[in-house]
Structures are given as structure tokens and as C-alpha cells.
Amino acid sequence: MQANKKASLINFMKKYGYWIGLGLSIAVLITIITVAVVARPASQVEDDFTPVDTPEISFSNPLTEMEMMKNYSNSALQYNSTLNLWQAHKAVDFAAEEGTDVYAVMDGKVTEVTYNYLMGNIVKLDVGGGITVVYASLAEDVPVSVGDEVTKGSVIGKVGNTAKSEANDGAHLHLEVLLDGESVDPALYLDLAEK
Ligand SMILES: [Zn+2]
Predict the structure, then answer these.
(1) Which domain holds residue 26?
(2) How far does residue 54's CA lie from ligand 1's centre (Å)?
């Protein structure tokens, strides 16, 4: 009986072994393809969402009328007529009448109120997420002090023409954005198309 069983198994394998092998191969192949297809989008999604820890941040406008005068450039040189030289301009300049209200673009904390010969009166506003907004060329009477907690849209200064390095441009707001201490294009956070 035992020998019979063994013989019939060998017989069975001889008859169907090829098909069983083929079936197993196909099953393995399908499993590999399925794993590859399912796993790949997962890793792509992870890549796309790398900056997921930084919440979406959008600023409100620092001025009622957003008239851009000079663009941001990290390395491209722009002509500075005041200094008569070509330089990168790591900020955006908005033309406005002297004395125009300048608003906090987000809730934040004033970390610095200073005067600098080249950039004039400066207010630095820490808005969280590693972002500091630097307002320069402000008029002399700055209404905020270091440590003040300000709310989005509140007045943090007035437009002036105090930045000696940009004096030829007339009264304007020089707005700089620092992310973890590095200058970034303010257009990333501002809706410049909207007036
Ligand atoms: Zn400027």
C-alpha cells in the first residue's frame, strides 16, 4: 500500500509537476509585482510630504496697497542706484507713501527693534515655525517694543525712507523673511497676486 501511494504520488508529480511549478512561479511573480506597486506610491507619498511637520503658513498683507517695487533675489544681482552697485536683494520692496501703516503679517512676538544705517529702522517679528519677518526702512516712531505680542493685522510700524542703502528708491517697506535664520523668498508666504 505504502509503495503504491508513493508510486502514485510520483506519477501525479510527473503528470502535473510542471503545471504546479508554473502556477507557483506565477503566484510568486504576482506577489512581487503587487508588493512593488503598493510599496512604491507609499514611498513617493512620503517624499512629497517631507515638509509635513511645517504647517502651511500664509501671511496677511503687510500693507493695504501692495505695490511691489523690487523683487527678491537670492543670488541674481539687481542694480542698486543708491550704492551704484549690483547686489542680491534678499527681500521684497513695496513702494508706499511715507507714514503708511505697516501690519503684522501673522500673530507673533517682537524680538528686535533696532536702527541700522544701511537698512534704517528695523522690526523683527518671530511668527513661529522658525520664521522671522524683518521689516526694514520703517519710519522713526516704531510703536512696538521688544517682547510685545502682536496680532495679525495690527500696526507694527510706518513706512519710512530710513534705509540709507536704498534711499534713492524713496519711501518703501523692505520686507525680509528668515526661515531658521536663512533668507527665503517672501513670495512663498505672501499672496503677491492679490492686491
Ligand atoms: Zn530692499
Answers:
(1) 2-53
(2) 27
Domain check: are 44 and 89 in the same one?
no
CA–centroid distance, residue 94 to ligand 1 (Å): 8
**DSSP SS3 for 137:** strand
Mean pLDDT across the chain: 87
pLDDT digits over 106-136, tens only? 999 999 999 999 999 999 999 999 999 999 9
Residue 104: which of 73, 138, 53, 71 has the closest Cα? 138
What is the identity of the amino acid at 154?
A: S
- Distance from the CA of 88 to the center of ligand 1, in angstroms? 10
Total structural domains within the chain = 2
Distance CA 172, CA 95 (A): 4
Indicate the pTM of the whole model: 0.70
In a domain? residue 61: no
